[in-house]
Amino acid sequence: MEPEHQPHDEPHMPAPTIWPIGFAIGIVVALVGLIINPILLTPIGLVIALVFGILWGREATREMRAEPVVVEPERRERTEAPPAVVEADGVTRNNFLAGATLGLGALIGGLITVPIAGFTLLPGFIRQPKTRVDLGPIGNFKLNRWYITTFVSDPAEGAVSRRTAFIRNNGSAPDPNDKTKQVPSFSIISNHCAHLGCPVQANGPADQYIGEAVIHEKTPNGPVIMDPVIPAGYGCPCHGGQYDTEGNRTAGPPTHALDRYDFEIDNGNLVLLSPYSVSHVVGTGATAQIYKYKLAGPGEHIDGPEQILYPIQPPHN
Amino acid sequence: MALRKPPTKTEIRRQQAVEVVTYPLDWLEERSGLVGGVKYFLFRNVPRDINWMQTLGSAALTAFIIQAITGSILAMYYVPSAAINPATGNPEAWDSIDNITNHLTMGWLVRGMHRWGASIFIILMFLHMGRVFLFGAYKYPRELNWIIGVLILATGMMEGFTGYLLPWDQTAYWASVVGINLNGTAPFLGPWLAQFLRSGQDITGATLTRFYSLHMLLIPGGLMALIGLHLYLVIRLGVTSPPWSKEAAGEEPVDGSLNGNGRIGLTQPVARGTGGRD
User: Fold this and answer.
1) Which tens digits make up the pLDDT trace of A272-312?
2) Is the Cβ–Cβ distance between A167 and A149 less than 8 Å?
3) Residues pairing with A163 in the sheet
């Protein structure tokens, strides 16, 4: 303790010592010794480290072992509070600095995170792959017979992109652009239930029970399986939605008819294109009138007053 | 004034032994205040007629901690990949679950704890919620804690939803199809939410990695923050007496108790008949 009173402005800390430096040198000698001369140098280094380590430890714990050092309580002279600065109304210096700190912090944080988050989450919304699935020659599809057709919609994704569609060859229909010509007509109904997307099943006998074989086809998209079926309609196993053979909802919770796929004939092959949503279908087969909408998710209303609940669809194919 | 006897050797030893424990605690306390904090957290006054039903919250917390521990272990072995393993012909995610369940020593136990613990966590949260409701413990000044509890329940269910896809089998796939489409039917932003969850227009391998990330990073982070807030409010506001308590509200607080920190008497049960011991 110094005779005259010193204000305790310095924090109470142990005095600086030389011991840790010796300890470090000992460790260095030991490690270098491992490379140069493990038999002679390393033990020397370890001894140095040990000796200095012990001394360092004793130094560091001296206060603990000895009589407790009496530290005077910290004291601050009580001073008169500075006269309150009466700020003019409006933005004070304090407010301004607080606001600037928060504002700049938010700005910088936002500038860094928002673009990153935006760009990294964007791929789920843009450039969705267009569906284009080669299902093999149209000759595979017997006239007016439904086929439960299973295919891989995206070979890059593999089995998880297996989809099922109910396909019927309607023969030919007048070309909508040129009424004098006849073009092939197919009904291609997605099996995604319009309630919540479960796989609807064809209600009716298939393959061996109607005496027809399952057709296996290899296409650039992978294996295509066509199972002939005579459906009385379609039913969903999850929550009981029922549809007629054209995909119109007949019972249960679905909000609209089953989705359908666009198609084209390429080189005599049936090629599946992007799906679209259907509110309902009037008539059947080639002459059916399909009320077509932009693809909407299952359970989303596409017609009627409830459609205002789903004004903007995220971009998809 | 009686003369104090000089300390015996045994007493000195005992004193030294006590200091071995107290010195590091004092060191920590002086630098962080943590010891006092833990004391404040654990050694609280609670109503004298507290009920076993009031342990349901702690039980739910324990269930969550078990989920966190078993989940961390599972994450060491689980592979969130939909790619097909050429050796087995199965997706790697499914294979890794198969490995955990059937080949890793005690892996079946850890996975089972995580799988069933998930349900137990949700059930305990509901029971805790029922207790709070029936005891009227959601009333002033604890309304905010009820709201936070509801958020914890919702976040816990998000954990259940995202975790269900990870085994990457038929059940997982179709449950997620239905779950995501359910989200998709929410008005206005629903379709966008669904597309965000799927990471595209269809469920693919990207959905699996996204759900994995949500399941073990984003949602648990939020859940832990909410649990922290929940506990903070429990400690700040104290525990309610059961509704049948004979010492229920209406009594005047013990004299002087209102001079404390402003909490006592208003929000914390006042120690009655214990000499005002705090």
Assistant:
1) 999 999 999 999 888 889 999 999 999 999 998 999 999 88
2) yes
3) A151
- CB-CB contact of A224 with A214 (8 Å): no
pLDDT in tens, B124-174: 999 999 999 999 999 989 999 999 999 999 999 999 999 999 999 999 999
Minimal C-alpha gap between A35 and chain B (Å): 37
Task: Tell whether A117 is within 8 A of chain B (Cβ).
Answer: no
Tokens of B36: 């006092």
Residue with tokens 């949503």: A277
Dist. CA A225–CA B232, nearest whole Å: 60
| Predicted complex ipTM | 0.75
Q: Cβ atoms within 10 A of the Cβ of A313, count?
A: 17
Query: Which residue in the set B192, B196, B200 is minimally distant from A128, CB to CB?
Result: B200
- Mutant choice from A120, A157, A200 vs B, greatest count of B C-beta within 10 A: A157
Q: Rounded to whole angstroms, what are the CA distances from B85 to A152, B46, B94, B174? A: 18, 57, 10, 22
Tell me whether A96 touches chain B (CB under 8 Å).
no
**Any chain A CB within 8 A of the CB of B188?**
yes
> Which of A176-180, A216-220, A232-236, B268-272 has the weakest average pLDDT?
B268-272
- Closest alpha carbon within chain A to B207: A124
Q: Can you tell me whether residue B254 is helix, strand or coil?
A: coil
